[in-house]
UniProtKB/TrEMBL annotation:
GO terms for molecular function: DNA binding. The keyword Cell division does not apply. One of its GO terms (biological process) is regulation of DNA-templated transcription. SMART domains: BTAD. This is Bacterial transcriptional activator domain-containing protein. Residues 94-240 form the Bacterial transcriptional activator domain. It holds the Pfam family BTAD.
Amino acid sequence: MLTIGILGSVEVAGAARLCGIKPKALLVALVMCANECVSVERLVRVLWDGEPPRSAIANLRSYACGLRTALDPAGATVVFEAGGYRLRVAPERCDHLTFGRLASAGGAACARGEPAVAVDLLTRAQALWRGSGAAAGVPRHGPLGCWLDSLDEERLRAVEDLAEARLAAGTPRDAARDLAGVLAVAPLRVRAWQLRMLAHHRLGEHDLVDAVFQDARQVFGAELGLDPDPDLTRTHRSLLRWNATTRSPAPVQLAPSPVRLVGRDATVNAVVDAVRAREVGRGPYVVVADGPVGVGTSAMALRAAHELADDFPDGLLYMDLGDLGADDPDPVARVLGRLSRLLRPHEPAVDAIEAAAVVQRFTADRRLLVVADNVAVAAHVRPLMAVGTGCCLLAASVSPLGMVDADRRVHLAPLADAEAVDLLAELLDTDRSSRSDLDRLARACAGLPLALRIAAARLIDQPELPVGVLVDRVLDDRRALAEMVTDGLSLRSRLGAALRAVDDCVRSALPCLVAPGELDMVDIARRLGRTGPACQTVLDQLSRIHFVVPVGPDRFRLPRFVRLLATELAAGDAPRREPSSAVEGHVVAGRYTEQQPENCQLPQP
């Protein structure tokens, strides 16, 4: 297939090879005016600088004949008409015309406010160039010099458009790199200097904003003996004023990145890659990470946030929403109030409406990353989506938060046995414990990183405690949850907190489902005293927080630690508040004569 390339060295694919500078120069002149007639007089000035030889017309005719012979079999032809020559060729066979079409469409997309589309089009346009100048090696005589200079100018303008689109898309680092290349070959381009200062400003590299301007001042002074262009000076002053009068955004307010995060590298990398590839402009990028209690969604979110620190120079914020229950009366006011205080720590508290305005105003043109941890329900996340379109929200929850319009979802499962043993081996002195002991402890902890870390901490705090003894205690259903406590961490407390994400009647029904093995729908209906929608509501809500696990068609089981918590609730051993509904009162009071209730009546649907 014929392609004529002049974006770099002159190349003709799919046709006979061209030899000699003059035939190539003629081809470049004709392809620059593809499908238009170029006069003989103009072509002579292209081929010869100064006075042409007496044989110029004959030589031109010979070169044109050679082009015709080379191109005709490939579907293009050179014809003589009206005192000149015309190259008849399909526009898509000429790389400079394809470049012009992509560059024009990319610039238009950027002007329409579609930065992701613009970046794609302009990147494809730039990829067509195979060198720093058009028609490399071909003398730029006469009008050909103007045509090729114009094409080079079009390329530089397209790079500037690409940099502007990258800034709008939230990737100023790439924009700064592109602009450095432009200024290396064309140091007097005012727009490139302006965009480069803006790129460093967006990156938070405020010292480099002034350094770039000083470089521009030196270049304009050395090349032209003039001060920088007034527009460039105004841009510099505007950015300096912005830096001087704007409060620095919230600093990094994250806990340190987890030192040991076994088995989660692929998930972290997937989240980081997705955030970096996001399309800015449609709203904040939202990632929801869910998994069972203790599986490590918080640690994964923190690791990803630290990996993304350079991509969000305006701040990294952490919000623990674990104290908000599903029935919180005004989550919008509480969540936005907290975020506004994080953004303006020295300002007085404001009401919900003003807090929303503060958040929108403060984040409109900034790039912040917010980690929302221990999210119970979607209503706690939705207020945070008021942040600017350049921001990102990482939400960690035991629930998938299906009502959140997430751009990316990740589910964390318990660690595989080998991964759990690897984590224990990193945390513990391996000389103290055998591989078999670690295997048993890993299985006893059900692959939950929280349980594994608590067990490891217990062994570190009690050097005299044999690993096997702790394993036996954790495997003992009567004391397992009591063993999963250390230094302020409690698996029982975390499980209890997760129950805040479900309705009161569902929370009260959990003890009714205590069973040593699997339950089918008949068992569940008998235990709950209901069939149909009310029974399904219980299963749906408990499944959402991973307290009930499907094991087959209409068959379920409770994970071990959930079952142990439910057993404590059924026996009245776990701390409880006063019943808040008739159903809950029935469950609390109706312990019957056995630990496992025979019936738990739910309200009518």
